[in-house]
Design goal:
Layout: H1 2-17, H2 23-32, H3 39-49, E1 52-55, E2 61-64, H4 80-85, E3 89-95, E4 98-103, H5 108-118, E5 123-128, E6 132-137, H6 143-150
Antiparallel strand pairs: 1-2, 3-4, 4-6, 5-6
Length: 158
């Protein structure tokens, strides 16, 4: 099951970072990452992840993650392993007792779950969308303190 979870996460990373229009292209990308699976298994994985096809800016139909209504792609070039190691984290911004964490599409929910279940005393709770997390911070906690404690879950938070 651990391998399946890693494969599903890898599929999400690939779909959110590359414009792929066929299962053959996706199978090829998965092969580069060390996964060997059949088209039938990939088809089941795509169904489980609720991956759909949508028209890209050039008119081709490509795979997209669910709820990616604005059809955004991560244009920074990182390896799949680099992206998996960072929980989809993109940025964090603060405003008084609230922080907003931006993630790649499809990653906010799992990161918010991890934050809520880690038991940080400085964080009251989270609300997650598809690519954004609202983080409610206790009084008298500094931005630096929050970044430091979150670095346990988000190694690339700066």
């Amino acid at each position: 099951m651990k391998n399946k979870n890693r494969r599903l996460e890898t599929i999400k990373v690939i779909v959110s970072s590359k414009e792929l229009g066929s299962q053959e292209e996706l199978l090829s990308e998965l092969k580069k990452e060390g996964f060997r699976l059949t088209q039938a298994t990939l088809s089941r994985d795509l169904k489980q992840l609720k991956v759909a096809k949508a028209a890209s800016s050039n008119g081709n139909y490509v795979y997209v993650l669910p709820n990616d209504t604005m059809y955004r792609r991560n244009t920074q070039q990182h390896s799949v392993n680099e992206m998996l190691a960072h929980s989809g984290f993109i940025s964090i911004d603060f405003s008084t007792r609230v922080a907003v964490i931006k993630t790649r599409p499809g990653y906010a929910g799992s990161l918010a779950y991890d934050i809520d279940n880690f038991g940080f005393e400085e964080i009251l709770g989270t609300v997650a969308g598809d690519d954004t997390i609202l983080l409610v911070v206790r009084e008298n906690c500094t931005d630096t303190q929050i970044k430091r404690i979150l670095s346990v879950l988000i190694p690339n938070i700066h």
